[in-house]
UniProtKB/TrEMBL annotation:
It is a multi-pass membrane protein. Keywords: Cell outer membrane, Ion transport, Lipoprotein, Membrane, Palmitate, Polysaccharide transport, Porin, Signal, Sugar transport, Transmembrane, Transmembrane beta strand, Transport. Residues 72-156 form the Polysaccharide export protein N-terminal domain. Residues 337-364 form the Outer-membrane lipoprotein Wza C-terminal domain. It comes from the Bacteria. It is found in: Cell outer membrane. The lineage of its organism: Bacteria, Pseudomonadati, Pseudomonadota, Gammaproteobacteria, Pseudomonadales. InterPro entries: Poly_export (IPR049712), Poly_export_N (IPR003715), SLBB_dom (IPR054765), Wza_C (IPR040716). Residues 162-239, 246-332 form the SLBB domain. Its main location: membrane. Belongs to the BexD/CtrA/VexA family. This is Polysaccharide biosynthesis/export family protein.
């Protein structure tokens, strides 16, 4: 009996220490111990209709820079590397000097690296920088000296001089030629064939004239999308990043804790919780659902922790409109009874061991 009383006191003190020790769960009133250095760098923000309205005002997922929309394609100008086909009607010896049996490209005229082009009875012409109509007019005027009223037509067999570069999560990367038909942004993306399972379609970067523009391709399916109005020009670069770094982590008292990859421009809190099977009905606390948003410089910036009470049915409407960001951590805390059960499961094995030890000690003493 003399030893049993101190044991009871020991278990009681252990119980008290486990229940009130800091760090057992995330408390809405006190995320960290008051007065600690961490307390000044964590901001707890309830998810409310007012918060969603403020974030909605800064939502730029449909934003396109005005200068991109203002650009209109100009008439195609011939450049070095382009392959030109010149037709002189009723003069096959000029149209197809290599013979009509040859492939059409065999009778094409290549624009030289210096921009010049040679044509019989015309001589060397400065082709680079000219439009198709300007080149046709120049050839016709010079041929008129040897051919009566020449009927000349000019077309481009192969466009090389002007191009757009694709890189990143495309099936086909590399050059996309700009032709005499204006090249739209969506046309170039279509030619590259997006890797839909691996691409971050909200993170397309257009590099133009030493500027970078972020374009959300997912906005194409939204109302008032103006992506169809973006045209590309020579020298543009399109980079589509992979989505391997665009993840959200769902942890705590959920049915299946795991990381989720963004498939579009955003993922809301309801989508994230639904993707892991929802909250665990047996162990979770609906009032302790948090979204932890990290920062790049933890020593200088404030970590934001958003909190929502999903015990209220109306809160699910808020969760549906709360947009997560890459690297967010969604954490669901345990219910009070869950903490108690876990404490009991940890204490009783220790208590049983202590009781066994006391029993052995008493037996030795009696003997």
């Amino acid at each position: 009996m003399k030893r049993a009383l101190p044991l009871a006191m020991l278990v009681g003190l252990t119980l008290q220490g486990c229940i009130f020790s800091p760090g057992q769960h995330m408390d809405t009133g006190n995320l960290v111990r008051e007065g600690s250095p961490e307390s000044s760098r964590i901001e707890l923000i309830p998810i409310t209709p007012k918060l969603l309205a403020i974030e909605g005002a800064f939502d730029k997922t449909n934003y396109v820079a005005p200068e991109l929309l203002a650009y209109q394609p100009v008439e195609y100008r011939i450049g070095a590397g382009d392959l030109i086909f010149i037709t002189v009607w009723d003069h096959p010896e000029l149209t197809a000097p290599s013979g009509s049996q040859q492939q059409i490209e065999a009778n094409g005229r290549l624009v030289r690296p210096d921009g010049s082009l040679f044509y019989p009875y015309v001589g060397t012409i400065e082709a680079a920088g000219k439009s198709i109509e300007e080149l046709r007019s120049t050839i016709a005027s010079r041929l008129a000296k040897v051919v009566a009223e020449p009927q000349v037509d000019v077309s481009i067999l192969r466009f090389v001089s002007q191009k757009v570069i694709l890189s990143g999560a495309f099936l086909k990367t590399g050059q996309v030629p700009i032709t005499n038909a204006p090249l739209r942004l969506l046309d170039a993306v279509g030619q590259g064939s997006v890797l839909t399972n691996d691409a971050d379609i909200s993170g397309l970067v257009l590099k133009r004239d030493n500027h970078e523009y972020l374009i959300d391709l997912d906005a194409l399916n939204r109302k008032n999308s103006n992506l169809q109005s973006i045209y590309l020009k020579d020298g543009d670069q399109l980079h589509l990043p992979y989505n391997d770094q665009k993840k959200v982590y769902v942890l705590g008292e959920v049915n299946t804790a795991k990381s989720l990859v963004f498939k579009g421009s955003n993922m809301n809190l309801t989508d994230a919780l639904g993707s892991v099977g929802g909250l665990s009905q047996e162990t979770s606390s609906g009032k302790e659902v948090y979204v932890i948003r990290g920062v790049d410089k933890l020593a200088d910036e404030t970590v934001k922790v958003f909190q929502i009470d999903l015990k209220s049915p109306s809160a699910f409407a808020l969760a549906q409109h709360f947009k997560l960001q890459p690297q967010d951590v969604v954490y669901v805390g345990p219910a009070d009874v869950t903490r108690w059960n876990r404490f009991i499961s940890q204490v009783f094995p220790s208590a049983s061991l202590l009781r066994t030890g006391i029993g052995i000690d008493n037996d030795i003493g009696n003997n």
